[in-house]
Amino acid sequence: MTRRPTIADIARAAGVSKGAVSYALNGRPGVSAATRERILAIAADMGFVPNRAARSLSVSSAQTVGIALRRPARTLGIEPFFMELISGMEATLSAGSFGLTLQIVDSPEEELDVYRRWWAERRVDGVLLCDIHVDDNRLDVIAGLGLPAVAVGGPVEDGKLAEVWHDDIEPCREVLEYLYALGHRRVARVAGLPHLLHTTIRDAGFESAARELGLDSFTGIHADYTGEQGARITRRLLTAPARPTAIVYDNDVMAVAGLGVAHELGLEVPERLSIVAWDDSPLCRLTHPTLTSLTRDITAYGSKCAEVLLSLIRDEPVAGEGSRSIQFTQAVLSPRGSTGTAPE
Amino acid sequence: MTRRPTIADIARAAGVSKGAVSYALNGRPGVSAATRERILAIAADMGFVPNRAARSLSVSSAQTVGIALRRPARTLGIEPFFMELISGMEATLSAGSFGLTLQIVDSPEEELDVYRRWWAERRVDGVLLCDIHVDDNRLDVIAGLGLPAVAVGGPVEDGKLAEVWHDDIEPCREVLEYLYALGHRRVARVAGLPHLLHTTIRDAGFESAARELGLDSFTGIHADYTGEQGARITRRLLTAPARPTAIVYDNDVMAVAGLGVAHELGLEVPERLSIVAWDDSPLCRLTHPTLTSLTRDITAYGSKCAEVLLSLIRDEPVAGEGSRSIQFTQAVLSPRGSTGTAPE
DNA sequence: CTGAAAGCGCTTACAG
DNA sequence: CTGAAAGCGCTTACAG
C-alpha cells in the first residue's frame, strides 16, 4: 500500500509553500515559470493526484454528474436503450473529467429523494433526467433546488430545464407513409407507457398521419415495453377479426416479441404481416427476418445530453445552440426484412 | 435556490458547539440525551444532510464503490447481463448508503489507469472487477494498491483478491447429459471470448463431459458474444457436412442470433436443431420457440458481490463465509421450447 | 457531559 | 513573484 502524496509533500520537496504548489498545478499565475516546472516535475515524479474530497470541499463542486434510473431491474436489463445512452453520456463526461454516479430507484418519490439528497450532500453538480412524463413534477423540484439538469427527452418547452429532444412526429409520418406505399391499410401500434411524454407525442403523430393518409383502421394500444406485454397484445391483435397487416412497436424488445408471436401463429413475416420497431438496437438484426426499424444514434444522443449538462454546470453557453431546448437528429426509417407489400 | 445548512448553523440554533452536533448526529457518546434530541430535531427541521466532501475528507472514505466496464458500448448495450448485474450491485450499495460510480473504458490499460486514479483521488473505497481473464494482471495491480476489490467471477483462487464465482463445470455436464438423453450425439458450442476465465472453465467442462458421454462429435468455436458472430458461426456449423443436431451458446444474444439463422435456413427448431443458451435473460422468452437456457439469478449475484465488497471495506468478516473465495449458486437448466429429441 | 481546537487536503484572497 | 493564513464542512482526540 503506497502512500498517497499531498501538496504538502510536494511543497516540502520543492521548498515552496502549499499555495505555490496549488498555483503551479492548476496553471494559475503566481509562480515563476521555473518554479512551476520544478513543481510539476516533482509532482509527476511522486505520482501526485489531488484528493477529490479536499478539492470538492474547497471549490464546492463534486466533478460528478448523477443519473437515477427508475424502471424495474429486469426491464432495464433487456432494454439496450439505457446502456447505450449511458455509454454515450459516460464518454463525454469522462472526457471532461467528470464522474458518473448511478442510482436505481423504485418509485417517483424515491427518485425525488435521491435528487434532494444528492443536492444536499453536494454529491453531484448536475443530473440527467430520463423518461420525461406528462406533467413531470421532477422538473419543478429540480428547478426549485437550482440543480443543473438536462431533461433527456421532450420537448417540454416550459423553460424550467434544459432539454435535448428529437422530433417524433415526422418519423411517425415516415413509417405510415412507407407502410401505405406498400399497400397496408390496417395498421396497429403497440405503444409505450401512456404517461411518458414521448408516447403522447407519438400518439398524436400517428393519429394525425393515419387520418391524413385515410387508413382503413389504425389501432394504438399502450404497453410497458416488456416482451410479455408485447407478445400478449400482438396475440390479441392478430387473432381479432380484420387483423392488421402491419404492426409498429414503440421499442425493439416488444417488436422482437411480436415477431415471435407471428411465428407462433404461423403468420409469415413479411408476407402476411409487416413489423416495424422503434429504436434500432443490435436486437433488430438478431432475428430472422431482421427488423425494419426507426434508427437513431442513442450513444450520440447520450453524449449530447452530457455535453449540454457540462455546459450548464460550467455556466457556459451551450455550444452552437441558441436556446436551452435543443433538438437532436430525428429517427430515420431503416427498412429491413420484416416489412413488405401488404397481403391482398 | 435554498441554502444548505451546515453543522455550524445547527450548532448556532441549538446553542451548542459543532462537536456536539457531530456527536449527536452520529449517535456517539458525548452529549446528553436531552441535547441530542434537541439537536436532532433542529437538524431535521433544517433539512440537514451532511456535505459528502467534508465528511469524506475527515474520515478518509468516499462512501462510493467503482465499476469499470470494458467492452464496446454496442456490446454492453445488448447484453442484458450487465444491467442486471449492476442493478443488483446498486441495490445493495444504496441500502448500505454507498454510491456507485461507473466508468466505461476502451482498453485494459485505460481500465488500470482508472483504478489507479480512483485510488489516488480517494474517489472510491473499493472496486468491482468484471470479466476476469486468464492471468488477469488487474488482480496484481489492485492488490498492490491495497484497494479493496471483489472479482466478479473466478475462481482464481490465488488469494490476492476476494471473489464471488459459480461452478460452471456442473452446468456443462447437466446440459450435455440432457441433450444426450434427448438422443443428440453431434453437439456444437459457440463459446465466449477465449481469454476470459469462465470461457476456459466451460471449455474444460464441456470437453470432459462430452468425452465421458462418448458423443460422436463435440465442436467448440470461440466468438465475441455479438449477434453477428453468433449468426456467422451458426451458419458455418449448419451448412457443414454432418451438421450438429444441437448447439449450445455461451450467452443469450448469440443464441437468439443462432435461432434466427436456423429460421433462415429453414431448419425447424427444435425438430431439426436444438438450441441452448447460457444466461436466462428475458431475451430467451422473447423468441418463438422460447429458448432453453442455463438460468442464474444475475441480480442476486450482483448483490452478493457488492455485499462482499462492503464487508471488505468495513473490514468486517464476510457474513456466513469462511474464506474470501465465495461460491455462488450455480446455473441450472431451464428447458423450454428450443430443445427436443434429436432427428434420426 | 460539554466546549474549544486541531486536522483532513485542497484553494484562494491578502500581504509582502 | 512568493509566503503565511484563512476557509471549505465535517470528525475527533483533548481538556475542563
Characterization of the model:
The structure is a homodimer of 344-residue chains. Chain A has a 6-stranded parallel beta sheet with strand order 2-1-3-4-5-11, sandwiched between helices. The first copy, chain A, is elongated. In chain A, helix 6 crosses helix 13 and helix 7 runs parallel beside helix 8. Chain A is of the alpha/beta class and 344 residues long. In chain A, 45% of the residues lie in helices and 17% in strands. Chain A folds into 3 domains: 44 residues, lambda repressor-like DNA-binding domains (434 Repressor (Amino-terminal Domain)), CATH 1.10.260.40; 118 residues, Rossmann fold; 127 residues, Response regulator (Rossmann fold, 3-Layer(aba) Sandwich). In chain A, strand 8, helix 12 and strand 9 form a beta-alpha-beta unit. Chains A and B meet through helix 4, helix 5, helix 6, strand 2 and helix 7 of A and helix 4, helix 5, helix 6, strand 2 and helix 7 of B. The first copy, chain A, binds a DNA duplex (16 and 16 nucleotides) through helix 2 and helix 4.
